[in-house]
Amino acid sequence: MPAGPALQTGLVVGAFGRHCLVETPGGERVICHPRGKKSQVVVGDRVSWLATQDEGTIERVQERRNLFYRQDEVRTKSFAANLDRVLVLIAAEPEFSESQLVRALIAAQAQRITPLIALNKSDLAEPFARAWARLQPYRDMGLDVVPLSLRRDGAANRETLLQRLQGHTTLVLGPSGSGKSTLINLLVPDAGALTNEISQALNSGKHTTTSTTWYWVDGAKTTALIDSPGFQEFGLNHIEAMQLAGLMPDFRPHVPNCRFYNCSHLHEPGCGVISVVKSAPGPREISLTRYKIYSELFAELSQPPRY
Fold first, then answer.
1. Which bin fits 232, alpha (ψ -120 to 50), beta or left (φ > 0)?
2. Backbone dihedral angles phi then psi of residue 227, each to the nearest 5 degrees
3. What pLDDT sits at residue 208?
4. Cα gap 131→139, rounded to integer Å
């Protein structure tokens, strides 16, 4: 009996609905359809697939190093898999939500993905100064925070970002107005053409952009950017309330100093976190704003599920 078609390996570089685009090791891109009713395939997945005429079916998703996602009471939204970096792009104007920033950083920490914060619009002197000051606690805790002016200093910004992203796979997150499209086009000059190409392939000619798209930054294919859709909310229902402090770098060093092993860091006597919050401010301490966000998140994640 002749052998059937052999399984091939590939990288998922685009996804939309029930279709995805798989890149072969040789650089060919093939439309594939996951088996089963519900697609669990995301951009960044390494997959085993089977050719079927001019398309293919995904037979298996290979084991992931990580999966970056958000989850609220209604649904789970997966962004991408097998990431090295998450670049959170915010801007001096419009004013960014620190709560949404904290949520994205916690989600990255939970999956052991290195975060990078980029603050755009450094050419707006006063708004930028205010935003930069708000980010002082993040610099104090050792996170990489980069100032950018994507409209004014394109070449310099490109060099600054490439130094940090070289050799890595990076998911770019950013609210509307932060300059995410400008950043993608700066690092990948033909990104627009690639997006149209992928959209037409996945949607039979319909001009609908893919939810998440993979771009190679260099010809050697060692550096990649993943563009993600914007979001207004970032649910963390997949994180347990008692895990939060351990996922916040400024809280984590003080947790072992708590009197009780199951301390919530909200009201208990002898709490190492509360004692730091109440002490005089200093480097690597916990800001009042971050503690307030922690308290709100703890309350949110402690709510019983609604059925």
1. alpha
2. -90, 130
3. 42
4. 13
Q: Using alpha carbons, select from 160, 207, 211 the residue that is nearest to residue 18.
A: 211
Tell me, yes or no, whether 306 lies in a domain: no
Does 251 map to a domain? yes
Confidence of residue 6 (pLDDT cuts 50, 70, 90): confident
For the stretch 61-112, pLDDT in tens is: 999 999 999 998 878 889 999 999 999 999 999 899 999 999 999 999 999 9
| Total structural domains within the chain | 3
Report the CATH number at residue 282. 1.10.40
- In the prediction, which pLDDT does 105 show? 97
Please enumerate in sequence order all residues whose Cβ is within 8 A of that of 99, keeping only pairs 6 or more positions apart, or say none.
293, 296
With a cut of 90, say whether residue 134 has pLDDT above it: yes
Which ranges of 113-270 would DSSP assign to H, the alpha helix? 125-134, 136-140, 154-165, 180-187, 191-202
Closest CA to 131 of 177, 69, 182: 177
**Local confidence band at 244 (pLDDT 50, 70, 90 cut-offs):** very high
- 72 and 54 in a single domain? The answer is no
Residue found by looking up tokens 């990580």 in the block: 66
Q: Tell me, what amino acid is at 94?
A: P
Residues 204 and 246 in one domain: no
Beta pairing, strands 55-61 & 29-34: parallel
What is the pTM for the complete model shown? 0.90
Tell whether 221 and 72 lie within a shared domain. Answer: yes
Asked if residue 204 and residue 87 are part of one domain, the reply reads yes
Same domain, 147 and 54: no
